[in-house]
Fold each of these.
Amino acid sequence: MLNIDAETLLSTVSSAQARDGMREALRAGYNPDTCLPRTSADLPNGQFLFMPSAVDDFVGIKVLTLTPENADRDLPTIQGCVLLFDGRTQAPLATVDGAAITELRTPALSMAGVKDVLQRRFTNGVHMVIFGGGAQAAAHVEAAQATVPVTSLTAVVRGEGKAQRVADKAAEFGIEFTEAISNSPEAIEAIEQAGFIVTATGASEPLLEDSHVRNDAVLVAMGTHLLNARELPGDLLGRSTVGVESIENGKREAGDVHQAIEEGHLTWDDVLSFSEIAKSEGACIPDDRPFVWKSVGQGWEDIVVAGLAYRAALRGPTALKDSDK
């Protein structure tokens, strides 16, 4: 059985490959509504998370530990692995570093949902705003740049100097970078100018106001999978086209959408699924309003990425990642 560590995974599978691998699974007929739900179990010092799925030629499960106190120990708060099995014989094939696969899969998923509309609306480049300054915020910069030219970037954070990871990632790609403090005039101005907005926080209340968002803006809300938490206001979702990975799973975990529906801004019949978006190559998304992509993460996406890494490992060390869009 292979062991695919973080370095091997991140040097073998690119963000663009992970993004397009998910879309290809949907076009081949995979139905995210069939993915088994995420479950959890309490531990003395945190939680277990279990995310099982069967997709393509594989079955597998991602098992993670969540240890909040590790932040004070300068250790990862999320650790674990993906166990990958053959889909027909169910023989074990590989273990894959769980934190690394989450780091890769999450921004790739964000771009998988918005790729078509981003590339259609912003052929010549886009000003991007990202809320948050952590690892996922930085990873979203790389994933965005692999999808559409990012001409400038503003990170909106709670305190001065908290966006250094994002600044460093922007510098890698030569992207003009600024930092703005939440709710400051500079942050509001950046939001008003942004064509692409990503919220990568653990916020439970909206981070911005509907009136500050352009009619042609594309937004990704990916910071929470809790029904009682949201990063975007309901009235923004009410005037937008909204997409989720799975309607059924969205009803369980997509707090931004759930709360907007509870407030009467839209209904589940108004919401597009990932399958509809991928199979139509974004034709189902009109261009006369904002588009909001709400992702929560499902186990099938991790299995797709783990499968890409496993196949690349079988091809040998020359099968390095391809950064083509």
Amino acid sequence: MQNLFLHGIAITGSGSAVPATRLDNQLLTQLVETSDEWITTRTGISQRQLALPPESLTTLATDASKQAIASAGIKPEDIDLILLATSTPDDLFGNACRIQAELGAIKAVAFDLTAACSGFVFGLVTAAQYIRTGVYQNVLLIGGDILSRWVDWQDRRTCVLFGDGAGAVVLPANKSDRLLGFSLKSDGSQNHYLNLGYQGTTKQVSPDIHVPTGTYHPITMNGKEVYRFAVQKVPEVIDKALFEAHLSVDQIDWLILHQANQRIINSVADRLNIPEHKVISNVAHYGNTSAASIPLALDEAVRQGKIKPNDIIATSGFGAGLTWGAAIFQWGR
């Protein structure tokens, strides 16, 4: 039954999971012409984790979700809705239902949401709408990707960047609304700067009909344009979310950006005048894990005791689409 008195949203209970296999920069030098210095100077990345069989998005997302559910102090049967933010499902028809079954969340509606590296922020805002309207009381939000499946390991512009992982949070209905402000943006005219496009061949099924069939190209990216886009648009969208939250930059306790590149993280923090000790970054250890990067960094900071209840967090995702967005929230109930 809907509780008409709980139309706010809390963000509590976190979990994360990464694959067992580590690929450091030194090993990458055996695949492409590069060096540890070249990679770290340009990206800040030292290593990344890669999912190898039998690991999958399902196994990583399920592990992260179990941790988040336990941390939130609820049971899988209490979950009403599962949102999986991903661009790399095990099944192109969707992965969320498989995770629902693995968790035993028998009452939950489950579906995938695709917004690439912005997926977790878009998912957070989407979950909030279901709770604020009184439709659902407990939402499990997962961000997870296995981008190593779609990397050209001979392209040093992209293969050095990406890693695999999953992170999750539980969003319960709450008397006070802990999602303080947000702003979401899209610009499809810049789609060609970062994509994972369909690569088709054809199969003749009749003399006049040739049906497209095929797979996808590896990830392609114009790094300079994506960098320029991120350092310009991300501070702007965070400012807009802060304005909606009636907060100033000085009131932020932590900044958690999509972990794409340490230079981007540093540039955004500098433009917002956020000091280094308030910036959470783990890109050096995991690389760009797309929709997983924000919840993975969040969970690590919570478990390390950095993030405490009532801390105000500014977060922003940005990437393919092109999409970008920011959310300002307080951790815990």
Amino acid sequence: MNETLKTLKERRSIRKYKKEQISDEQLNLILEAGSYAPTGMGMQSPIMVVVQDEETIKELSKMNADVMGTDSDPFYGAPTVVVVLADRGCRPTYVEDGSLVMGNLMNAAHSVGVDSCWVHRAKEVFASERGQELLKKWGVEGDYVGIGHCILGYRDCEYPEAKERKENYIVRV
């Protein structure tokens, strides 16, 4: 089977991670794939902020959990978080552009032996006062909106089985 199609079929979202950090080589390959996601008119409205500092990840996790209304860890102990943001003023397709980056990150991660999961609520986290402070601290300037948190690491659980594809997934006319 074609390696790209194999990756797309086999990748699963993982919700329990080992503390072990992924390698710089793996991370750089994953980020490179994210930077090659298609964007409206090739304008590249998204950016990726890599967070591997444990304290910052804990803060982001708490902010995310607060939006969700829980005290659990929505990042499942993952040692790396890639925050995907997109500039709303760059293109009207900024949400789609950022979503394609998220997809590329997760698929590339699987292809290099790293597990991943898309964690929502980045929009709310970075619309908050503290979220805006973090963006400023990180040097992110512009009208950026949170698209998603791509958590990365090595799973500490069984690999999930794929659900059967629904019957009407594809409609041919």
